[in-house]
Amino acid sequence: MPHLSVKLYPGRSEAVKQAFADKLQDFVVKELGCEPNVVSVSFKEIDPEKWKDVIDDEIVGEEVYIESDF
């Protein structure tokens, strides 16, 4: 608790993803008041032509707090 799953287009280096995960972890610890060792972050790269599947399967019908122009 909690786990953050980040889906993004391919092309970011492992160093960029690690730095982003570290920042997400720091933010979650600060905002939710939990310990760093219980926060996990995963990345899944999705090709642009498959992004609609992410929208249809995981975003449509969910509570979305930040709207985006897909």
- Mean pLDDT equals 91
Which parts are unreliable, with pLDDT below 50 for 5 consecutive residues or more? Answer: none
SSE string, helices as H and strands as E? EHEH
Helix content class: 40-55%
Explained architecture:
This protein is an alpha+beta fold and 70 residues long. It has 2 helices and 2 strands; from the N terminus they run βαβα. The N and C termini lie far apart (29 Å).
Short description:
By secondary structure, the chain is α+β, with helices and mostly antiparallel strands. The protein is built from two helices and two strands. The chain is globular, with a radius of gyration of 14 Å.
From the structure above, extract its key features.
single chain; alpha+beta; 70 residues; two-stranded parallel ribbon
